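User: Good morning. I'm curious how adenosine-5'-diphosphate would be positioned relative to this chain. Could you predict the structure with it bound?
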Amino acid sequence: MARRHRYWTGHLAKMTSNLARIEAGGAPEPIILTPDSPFLAMGKQIESLHAATQTLQSQVEIRQATFGRLIDHLPLGVMLLDANRQVLLANSAMAELVGHPIQETKHDYFDDIKTYRLARMIEHTYRNQKTHHKELTMLNTQKSVDASVIALNRGTAELQVLVILYDVTYLRQVEQMQLDFVGNVSHELKTPVTAISGFAETLLAGAKDDPKTLDQFLQIIYDESSRLTQLITDILTLSRPDSGQAQAKAVNVLDLVNDALKSLKQPIAEKGLEVKTDVPKDLTITTVPAKFSQVVRNLLNNAVFYNRKDGVVTVTATADEKNLKLSVQDTGIGIAENDQERIFERFYRVDKARSRHNGGTGLGLAIVHDMVMQLGGEVTLASQVGVGSTFTVSLPLADLPRFYK
Ligand code: ADP
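Assistant: Good morning! Here's the predicted structure, ligand included:
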């Protein structure tokens, strides 16, 4: 009887401790049970309970890892806070927006959120348990974010606060660039229009009676209206989205260069320039002819206009298996090093008066840059003040961006 009692209590104690082990996430200790043992069914049940718990645990781990990966790859900054203002979870986008790594263990959110307006939104949410939404600038990183602070489990003791930050810095920059562009365009359009109306007004007020003045002023009005037309054409070229509709074709490089030079015949002769072309006769490139031609024309225009009297313009083209390299070299005024980075910007000119006098719009190189990018290439510049400039365009011979094929 006593042995039987020991057997029962011993087994029950082991099984109880095994259940406790399973509960704590561990494995049960093995118990040897004979086939006729009254504990056999219970032992088997404990085994299968262990197996089920393990499966569940690994499923939870997989989910946890997936969730972790998902949240870390979200482009949104996410942070979850508990009712005691402790950070339960934050992803890497949030760390980037606050400007420093976020500790993984629980800690006060004040350690991470130093932006006063965001901290105030969070405090409001704790106080009135309402969702808040605002655009603000992060203190350390100066990023513009669209912030949402959301109250979860409202009205319970387990109130949680979810902070979601959407980085809108790039959007705001683009908007600013568009505003700047519109501002520049209006300013640039105003200059020739003011000149035209000013000279016309003077003529009407009586200057027309002097034939010499009449000729001179009409010439100015004509030049300024040509400039206006050129400006509008350039602005339209830059504003037109690259629809990718244009078809790529095989273009003979030498023919295209000669065509561009033809329309510059007069200014080349006036300046007494010598033009050298070193382009293989049979060199062809598969590209969008209109865009390639704009690039060459604009570079040649500048090489002529910013050249010295009796200077030289040299056009060279070579190709390897993949790329065409076309350079336009002049012996002109050159470009100082600190201007070299900026001359591809819209409306940037080193010497405003000189550029305007030449009929320049300050958009030629911006167009070159845009077109070369669209064609999948790049443009570089080497220049020395007083010696000359060389613009080199590198374009893929055939491997154009996909939409042109
Ligand atoms: P612009 O219509 O004024 O020529 P671009 O965009 O073509 O406008 O050129 C921008 C500025 O870069 C010019 O105003 C000029 O100051 C400078 N620049 C461009 N090409 C040359 C060159 N070949 N030699 C010297 N300066 C140049």
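Residues 302-303, 306, 330, 332-335, 343, 348-351, 355, 360-366, 389 surround adenosine-5'-diphosphate (CB under 6 Å). The first strand starts at residue 77 and ends at 81.
Let me know if you'd like a different ligand tried.
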